[in-house]
Write a structure and sequence with these properties.
The chain is α/β, with parallel strands linked by helices. 49% of the residues lie in helices and 19% in strands. The chain is globular and about 35 Å long.
């Protein structure tokens, strides 16, 4: 059963993600954090299989936390959960080691798909992201491997 750590500075979002995952017993929410520093600490303590990480948080943001976690745990799967459709944030997230980029607007319908793809060693990008940007990021991911 894959273990999921939810990281977002808004408790409302964390509860929403939990409520989606509670319906599916194959996913175990092992913890939650409200900022990047706590995410790094909990990644060490809980060893989740997947981290759903908000990008914009006070203090250490999600991209910085992703970079720090992947440095210590290169096989840990991180999905950035964000409001931002910015191609630059998307690129920076994957450069930091994220394996997925899920827009909060797509989360209700796409969360489980994103998690399954990531746990299956794939990469996931929200369907709302412009296809030309996705193609560029996919090409960059291939060169990073």
């Amino acid at each position: 059963m894959p273990r999921v750590l939810i990281v977002d500075d808004h408790a409302f979002i964390r509860r929403g993600v939990q409520s989606i995952l509670q319906i599916f017993p194959e996913w175990d929410v092992c913890g939650e954090a409200g900022d990047g520093a706590d995410a790094v600490r909990l990644a060490d303590e809980l060893s989740p299989d997947v981290i759903l990480m908000d990008v914009t948080m006070p203090g250490m943001n999600g991209i910085e936390a992703t970079r720090a976690i992947r440095k210590k745990h290169p096989h840990m799967n991180i999905v950035l959960l964000t409001l931002h459709e910015s191609p630059e944030i998307l690129r920076n997230g994957f450069r930091a080691g994220a394996r997925g980029y899920l827009l909060k607007a797509d989360a209700e319908l796409e969360l489980l798909k994103a998690l399954r793809v990531i746990v299956g060693d794939g990469y996931y990008i929200s369907p709302r992201i412009e296809s030309s940007v996705v193609a560029e990021v996919v090409n960059e991911i291939r060169t990073l491997k």
